[in-house]
Amino acid sequence: MRIATDGETLRADATAQLAGAPASLTLTQDVSKPDGAETLDLQGEAGPALWHAFGLDTPSGFTSATQGSAPFRFSLSGPADGTQEAALEADLTRIGLALPLLGWVKQPGGAGRLAARFSLENGDLGAIQDFMMEAPGLFVRGHSQGRVFTLTQADIGRSQAQGSVIAPARPGQPWQIEASGETLDLRHGADAQTQPDQPAPAAPPQPAPSGPLWQARLAFQHLYITKPPAPGLRNVSLTASGQGQDLSQASASADGMSAQITPLAGPRRALALQGQDAGALLRVLGCMTACRAARWICGRNSAAARRRAR
Fold it and tell me: Which tens digit of pLDDT belongs to each residue from 4-22?
């Protein structure tokens, strides 16, 4: 560490270890008055130890495990007591990350970056003036004020949306999530499920739901849930609630179709589907190939029965 002062400004330069990786730190402070402003500049590299500290090295129901490392720079300026302005920049080129449900994958080596500007009030997060993350096939931007985070743009894979997330005002209340947009494409999530010609694994005992309570309202012009040639749904609206990764109940509607998910005993849920056009509903669910096979078999059996009757 090196410390220098001219009687009005104090400057300290140091090197340190941050989550097992080297980092450099520069701190300057106006010492000519009691509430003198201070400036902090921290540069380092986020890697496996930091991912583990934040639980990012373990896949979740939405993201893959984070791989690789990311050089970053964090700066902070303002009085020690009061409002401080902060900025974070990170180079995500060496990062590997995926959002399987939305069909988005970033391999290490693909260009990517993250940038954020936010304020701190006496050390606590005040507001996020701007948050931006971009990589091939992904662009996310938003800001926050108080309990509300506003997502102004989210282009992830083939999905495009905007919306908001509202944190609960008191413990025990649910998070409120709203999203809408042109397209929500979940076909890659369906691909990750068990294939039809493979036996389904035995379901393990389900633990009690854990995690935060949430309520969601979605509205999309197009929704895709099964791979081609199954068509998508149009003018989709959905309301749902749950806890953590557990879906408690939901209600959805689209052109001429509706769905209800209601709770049963324990972790079991009941699904009810209704549609004015049964064929269209089965095509959307990706069942048409099986139905055609069943119709062909029934037709063959009917023809054989007619021949025997003669």
Answer: 888 788 888 888 888 778 8
pLDDT averaged over every residue in the chain: 84
The three-state DSSP-derived secondary structure of the chain is CEEEECCCEEEEEEEEEECCEEEEEEEEEECCCCCCEEEEEEEEEECHHHHHHCCCCCCCCCCCCCECCEEEEEEEEEECCCEEEEEEEEECCCCEEEEHHHCEEECCCCCCEEEEEEEEECCEEEEEEEEEEEECCEEEEEEEECCEEEEEEEEECCEEEEEEEECCCCCCCCEEEEEEEEEEECHHHHHCCCCCCCCCCCCCCCCCCCCCEEEEEEEEEEEECCCCCCCCEEEEEEEEEEECCEEEEEEEEECCEEEEEEECCCCCEEEEEEECCHHHHHHHCCCHHHHHHHHHHHHHHHHHHHHHHC
Provide the β-strand partners of residue 87. 75, 117
Interval 107-121: pLDDT, tens: 999 999 999 999 988
- Count CB neighbours of 224 within 10 A: 22
Q: Are 95 and 64 in contact (CB under 8 A)?
A: no
Kindly report the number of other CB atoms within 10 A of residue 24's CB atom: 14
Please give the average per-residue pLDDT across 141-168, as a whole number.
95
Closest to 79 (Cα-Cα) out of 39, 124, 127: 39
